[in-house]
User: What shape does this take?
Amino acid sequence: MRQVTVSGTNLYALAAKYLGDATQWLRIAQQNNLSDPQISGAPVTLLIPAPDPNATGGAPTP
Assistant: This one.
């Protein structure tokens, strides 16, 4: 697990950079109790899960 401080980005870009797959943005969202993939405003520190080649991306289930 890694911590990053970001602002003015989105979870898609972070998933692509740190997990190698933009569709895994949901893993970052779940790790940080976020529902909006957009990060705007003041910088925030997020926990980034370790890359998992077996993980899949997609939309959250209701």
